[in-house]
Amino acid sequence: MLLSAIRCRPLRPSLPHLARLATAPASRRSRALPLALGAGSAACCAFATQRIAAASRLQPPPPSEVEHSSSSAYTSSLSKMPKLSLVLKLLWRCGELSFFLGPMLFWYALRKIPLAGERWVTRQALFKRLVRALARCGPVGIKWGQWASTRYDLFEDDFCEAIGQLTNDAPSHPFAVTRHAVERSFGQPIEELFERFEHEPLASGSIGQVHLATLRRDGATVAVKVQHPNLPERMALDMAILRLMADLCSLLFPQLRIGETADQFATNFEMQLDFRDEARFLRQFRRNYSGQFWSAICTFPQPTEGLVSQDVLVETFEAGESVATFLKRNGDRAINCWRKLENGEWQMERQDSEGWEDSDENAMRSSIALCGVQSYLKMMIWDNLIHADLHPGNVLIRMEDIGPLARLQRWIVLGDSSARVPHIVFLDAGLAASFPQQIFKSVNSFFDAIVQTDGVKIGRSILGLAPSQPNVADPDAFIQEVAAKCEQQKNEFIVGAGNPGKNIRSYMESVRHHGVVLDPTVMVALMSMMVLEGWQSRLDPQISIMECLAEATGGGMFGRMTRLNQLLQDTRETLSRAFGMS
To answer: pLDDT tens digits, residue range 424-463?
Structure first.
């Protein structure tokens, strides 16, 4: 990633042939450089055209997984394009990306000039230029910025806050484009469909932007999500370039399986290009959380019947404050925390937390963090349908009144019988994932093993997170390594230390070292969990993921309440079908 390279070390050529070129006579360098660039560009474009052709020959996904795929269709059309035209398009796009990102190297080098550099180019100025550069790169750059803004464990706080501007304030398209998309999708003038339609978008992201509107037919306030123009074409080109770079990296580092990661990233992007899929996911999420208990904790927008198309989605408007805004306004929760010393020992760092324990704000933060984690664990453990884009801009918080039954259930599980409680709204469900059935069993076994802190079982479960493990030379060595790490993490947990995100990354190091293959949906789920854990720990770092897992499984209170709600829901549906049949 660009920023990690910029932060860690200066970029310098290291390949021997580059060194020889640098020491060659000037006349030779002047001839060699254009030839090298020309040959390299031609080879890259030829490789990219082969990649596009290969992608177009892949078997399409089953209808149950993706009903429509505009990006895949455009990839197929690119493969049929004359090769000269395709090469020119790829060259133009490569030139655009280089033009947008190339100056960052200059500004970084300028900042590194001794004594004066940091005065000429401040950190904030460098971050602002990076935000603009990523925004101009389009959806791929914006999505990377959104991901990076949540990774406080990888980047400094000021960088995450600066780059977080891309979460809901990405570049927007003109209203004329929105009007054209809405009228083309639904075959009516926008004034006939909506009594009021705000020209300025509420928010803009990597895929589209959202407008506030009022339906003419029933006066309901709705959010209208409109896809950015020419997105499938730009995405197909960007994904071809991304896959090309991944293939080149795989030649140098085959053990990292970078190509698989790039393919999964591209597939995730392509899934979001048809809003009909998002509407289908939203309906399923709403069914999964329709019980009295869960509907009092969280909800999802409801698509409006008859107003859903490939590039326009009309859904209920959900009021609330995003977690990103809440954290920016209120800051992280400061409490006593553990820090690992260089000698391996743990030391308590005491911070001023007077008044936190009994404050209403602290109780609200804890409730939001706990319910957010438990909602996600329900997706993975019980429903097998995971919201895979849970950055803090996609999660809203609002206060809601709840009924007597929901209050009773909440009191049993959380010890809170309040009539007005924090409510979570999950937005932007275009990126969702489900495990294959056999993998789903291994996922549940993995979580059971974590609850039991059974390192051997954890290792075996990880090996089961793919249909086969052809690259693992010694499965027993992998299992023993995971078991040793589990024991160390258990000891850290006993003294109140440790971090779930770091634990996951520790296991991933073993996965990479032993060549373990993970099903792509597993990686989607893990990355989404790490993003959620990032903002959950900022809300309330005292919430333990281990305890949440124990509560979410069959024997825990959240698990029992989920089973009860599922039983009631199934009974209602059975009676409804029987009544309808009669």
So the answer is: 999 989 888 888 888 888 888 888 888 788 889 989 988 9
For the chain, list residues with pLDDT below 70: 1-81, 147, 150-155, 157, 167-169, 253-262, 264-265, 268, 332-359, 493-501, 554-556, 580-582
Give me 219's structure tokens.
Answer: 């006066």
Question: The tokens of 261 are what?
Answer: 């990661």
> Can you give the residue ranges of every domain in the chain?
41-165, 175-232+272-316
Q: Is 212 helix (H, G, I), strand (E, B) or coil?
A: strand
What six digits make up the tokens of 476? 């027993």
3-state secondary structure of 380: helix
Interatomic CA distance for residues 176 and 199, integer angstroms = 9
CATH of domain 175-232+272-316: 3.30.200.20
3-state secondary structure of 113: coil
Indicate the SS3 state at residue 242. helix
Is residue 428 a contact partner of residue 520, using CB atoms and an 8 Å limit?
no
**DSSP string across 402-453:** --HHHHHHHHHHHS---SEEEEEEE--TTSEE---HHHHHHHHHHHHHHHHT
Judge contact between 478 and 510, C-beta under 8 A: yes
Tens of pLDDT, residues 381-391: 889 999 988 88
Where is 142: in which H helix or E strand? helix 139-148
d(CA 400, CA 425): 11
Phi/psi for 210 (5° steps) reads -120, 130
